[in-house]
Specification:
The chain has one helix spanning 22-27; strands spanning 11-14, 44-48, 51-61, 64-72. By secondary structure, the protein is mainly beta. The protein has one domain: Roll (Surface presentation of antigens (SPOA)). Residues 5-73 form the Flagellar motor switch protein FliN-like C-terminal domain.
Length: 88
């Protein structure tokens, strides 16, 4: 396990997403609120180096915010075409 001690992974949590016109984004200033397409009980997406790896729920621990992992995502096994399905 010592070989993994020096490997860093950037962990990100996506609470929700939103789309808006660029002119609206450019007009935003301090205190602006961006509405997300999410609800307070929705799962958040957990990314490792920008790759989805898990889902979780936001939890409050005193004055800190954390994430409780609820599901580990499995990486899909790439299906190779079989004879008659296309190029191999």
């Amino acid at each position: 396990m010592a070989t993994f001690d020096n490997i860093s992974v950037e962990i990100s949590v996506v609470l929700g997403k939103s789309e808006m016109p660029i002119h609206q984004l450019l007009r935003m200033g301090r205190g602006a609120v961006i509405e997300l397409a999410a609800h307070e009980d929705d799962d958040v997406e957990i990314l490792a180096n920008n790759v989805p790896v898990a889902r979780g729920q936001v939890v409050l621990q005193g004055d800190r915010i954390g994430i409780s992992v609820t599901e580990i995502l499995r990486r899909g096994v790439e299906k190779r075409p079989t004879r008659g399905e296309g190029p191999i």
